[in-house]
Design brief:
single chain, two-stranded antiparallel sheet, 2 strands, 3% strand
């Protein structure tokens, strides 16, 4: 269950990155190619998250977003780097805001909220879906 949930979250983060990058860069792939690339990068990101230490995951995620941006969009290397950093920051902001916001609304501590598995999974998934919606609106 934990691996499936992590894979879904990684896929949602990659979709968020693609959606946010499409607001700033022009696409160079068809929809079918984009879906295949998103699936491959989602699996790769999930495997890297389990294989690397907590300190190295930030750099690997940003590098992965830059590579994904180069695969899907046209633009200079600086544009790709900035959109990848923007994607990472937005993902982090939404994760933190949703977790702390949900625990504050429920009136419980963050650690107690994390132990409530169903509420935690629901909140994180909804947060990632909201971030995709906001990136799509941009």
């Amino acid at each position: 269950m934990e691996y499936i949930t992590s894979l879904v979250w990684c896929c949602l983060e990659v979709i968020h990155c693609c959606t946010l990058s499409s607001a700033f860069l022009t696409s160079k792939r068809t929809a079918k190619q984009t879906i295949i690339i998103i699936a491959i990068f989602s699996l790769a990101q999930c495997l890297l998250a389990y294989a690397s230490s907590a300190l190295g995951i930030t750099g690997l995620t940003i590098i992965g977003y830059v590579v994904l941006s180069f695969c899907l969009f046209r633009g200079s290397w600086l544009q790709h780097l900035l959109t990848a950093c923007l994607c990472f920051v937005f993902n982090a902001i939404f994760d933190v805001a949703i977790l702390y916001g949900a625990s504050a609304l429920l009136g419980i501590s963050l650690s107690e909220f994390v132990w409530r598995k169903l509420a935690y999974i629901t909140a994180v998934t909804l947060g990632k879906l909201i971030s995709i919606l906001i990136a799509w609106i941009l």
